[in-house]
UniProtKB/TrEMBL annotation:
Gene name linked to the record: ppnP
Keyword Glycosyltransferase (UniProt): yes
Source organism: Metabacillus halosaccharovorans
Protein origin, superkingdom: Bacteria
Lineage of the species this protein comes from: Bacteria, Bacillati, Bacillota, Bacilli, Bacillales
HAMAP family tied to this protein: Nucleos_phosphorylase_PpnP
Protein name, as recorded: Pyrimidine/purine nucleoside phosphorylase
Amino acid sequence: MSKFENITIEKKANLYFEGKVSSRTILFSNGTKKTLGVMQPGEYEFSTSVKEEMDIVSGQLKYKLAGEDWKSIDGQGVFYVPANETFQVKAQTVVDYCCSYLNE
């Protein structure tokens, strides 16, 4: 899906790691929540409270889920992070992403 319609966007940016990772929250009428963001090159660690779908729209990214080896995305790709987990990423270029919060 290349665009979203009938959404609400929160004006205030979500800033992490001294602004090197930023996103905006978008809300859908059915209660679905996503964030659209950009990561500058660097290494970052995130924690989740719900299952997340990380949709990499562009860029080169390595990611490591708990108990797994490093995996790579070059261009576009998707990976899933279980609820209540910590995961690591290495953005090798500027990375454009969409994170979906999955209430399963």
